[in-house]
Design brief:
alpha/beta; D-Maltodextrin-Binding Protein, domain 2; 42% helix
């Protein structure tokens, strides 16, 4: 082997030894809140670890995101406790999420971010009802997302607990179309989420889930366990959100059409001002 090839081989060896870690890959599901949270996570890791972070945002539904994590196509994504229990683990409501994720998948379920984005049954603001029990005796034209219709903790729970009556089958559509559908009168009730930005407009009403059909949906980051410094940086985001703050962030993107990257940057600057 000539000297040039030997030198080239040594350079390749040094480069490979120096790059101990692969690029961190942050994923998210395919709706506004998830994309915002994914971008916040990515920017926070870049700020803390000074490494390049790849984004695989807007992946799809729950099982697509979970499978991407299992397949090592991503390293983390934000998930909801109720969704994790019902769809991923198929476990009872009192299951220990961190323990189950560690045992089954060797994944870390981090402390909650501070958001509880439970399902929210939304009607027009002039409706006389305040609770789902009061509304149960009236037939509704219902608009739902694809997951809500299929999930045991979604439409099935609503029917089981309240015996809700509907005019025909629910109209299934992308989550982003639900508010337009109720605005245009195509439906008169939608299965939305508690932190949706559109709820800040004030012309809609969330009916109280007075019989607790829906479990809590606390948001946590689920991540690969390999790098303690990554988990430590992610843990800094725990408890930094509220439902009102998440609703505001969603509103900035969905209603004011601001860029996700700028909204995420603004949140991080205001949250970690003293540490930058």
């Amino acid at each position: 082997m000539d000297r040039t090839k030997i030198v080239a081989g040594l350079i390749l060896l040094l480069v490979s030894c120096g790059s101990k870690h692969h690029t961190i890959r942050v994923g998210s599901k395919n709706f506004t809140e998830q994309v915002i949270l994914g971008e916040i996570i990515a920017q926070h890791l870049e700020n803390r670890l000074h490494e390049r972070v790849a984004r695989s945002l807007n992946l799809g539904g729950t099982m697509l995101a979970q499978q991407a994590l299992i397949n090592r196509e991503i390293d983390m994504y934000p998930e909801y406790s109720g969704t994790a229990l019902a769809m991923v683990l198929k476990a009872p409501p009192n299951a220990d999420l961190p323990a189950e994720y560690a045992r089954r998948f060797h994944l870390a379920w981090l402390p909650p971010l501070g958001i509880d984005n439970t399902f929210a049954m939304v009607v027009r603001g002039n409706a006389s009802f305040k609770t789902l029990s009061e509304a149960a005796g009236t037939p509704w034209t219902l608009g739902v997302g694809y997951e809500f219709e299929r999930r045991a903790d979604g439409l099935a729970a609503l029917k089981s607990v309240y015996g809700m009556q509907f005019k025909g089958s629910p109209k299934t559509m992308d989550l982003g179309l639900l508010y337009k559908a109720i605005e245009l009168g195509q439906v008169d009730m939608i299965a939305a989420n508690a932190t949706d930005g559109m709820l800040a407009k004030g012309d809609l009403k969330v009916l109280e889930d007075d019989r607790h059909a829906f479990p809590p949906y606390e948001v946590s980051i689920v991540a690969r366990e390999e790098r303690p410094e990554v988990l430590a940086a992610l843990a800094e985001l725990s408890g930094k959100f509220t439902n009102a703050k998440m609703q505001e962030l969603n509103y900035l993107v969905d209603v004011e059409h601001r860029g996700v990257a700028g909204v995420a940057e603004g949140f991080l600057k205001s949250t970690f001002t003293q540490r930058r």
